[in-house]
Amino acid sequence: MKNTLIAPSVLAADFGNLQRDIEMINNSEADWFHIDIMDGVFVPNISYGMPVLEAINKHAKKTIDVHLMIVDPDRYIKTFADLGANILSVHYEACTHLHRTLQAIKSEGMKAGVAINPHTTIDLLEDVINDIDLVCIMSVNPGFGGQSFIENTYAKVEKLKALITRKGATTLIEVDGGVTNKNAKQLVEAGADVLVAGSFVFKAENPTQTIQDLKTLTNF
Ligand SMILES: O=C(CO)[C@H](O)[C@H](O)COP(=O)(O)O
């Protein structure tokens, strides 16, 4: 029996009713809060920053999974630890010394994640996979919610799963972008452990039920 985790992306929440949407996640079968931080440089969009995460952290009762889409993320590792992040993912493409960055994240008491863009090959993680707690495979080009899922993601998940098994690592595989009830099961069959879903959850008529449906669909 699988234990697939569902992480609603707060990027798609209603910011005018943020506390309501946080409580919805608290009271649902969702496992994590997924928090997207964008700087307008690494990606062509600016999302939200520290004060909003501080507000979320006051109410959130589940794991806080922060995805940094920013250049030079080392500058903010301690800041995000202080703001309550439990998992901090940096982009492979944004790090010059990825191994050092992972050590710095762990030294602040957080789990260390690496996100990879659609064009970045899994092979580049080979020498560092045993140091990574979570790999976030981007199944859209990062920067915006509501984009279409890139089909090549299934093959990337399979390839990453094989690498993790071969290296005896305990790394979780997360998929982020365009996740819906159409691709969720196949992603888990390919090896995904965590599914991030933004628009599919928050634009649904009944977000709580949608989360429950995703859980049912992916735990078989
Ligand atoms: O990282 C992201 C965008 O860069 C979002 O988490 C992702 O796009 C999820 O949103 P959606 O489910 O609407 O695609």
Automatic annotation (TrEMBL):
Enzymatic class: isomerase
Reaction(s) catalysed (UniProt annotation): D-ribulose 5-phosphate = D-xylulose 5-phosphate
GO terms of molecular function: D-ribulose-phosphate 3-epimerase activity; metal ion binding
Cofactor(s) it depends on: a divalent metal cation; Fe(2+); Mn(2+); Zn(2+)
UniProtKB keywords: Carbohydrate metabolism, Cobalt, Isomerase, Manganese, Metal-binding, Zinc
CDD domains in the record: RPE
Positions of substrate binding: 9, 67, 143-146, 176-178, 198-199
Gene3D superfamilies: Aldolase class I
InterPro entries reported in the protein's UniProt record: Aldolase_TIM (IPR013785), Ribul_P_3_epim (IPR026019), Ribul_P_3_epim-like (IPR000056), RibuloseP-bd_barrel (IPR011060)
Entry's Gene Ontology BP terms: pentose catabolic process; pentose-phosphate shunt
Pathway this chain belongs to: Carbohydrate degradation
Name of the protein in its database record: Ribulose-phosphate 3-epimerase
Originating species: Flavobacterium fryxellicola
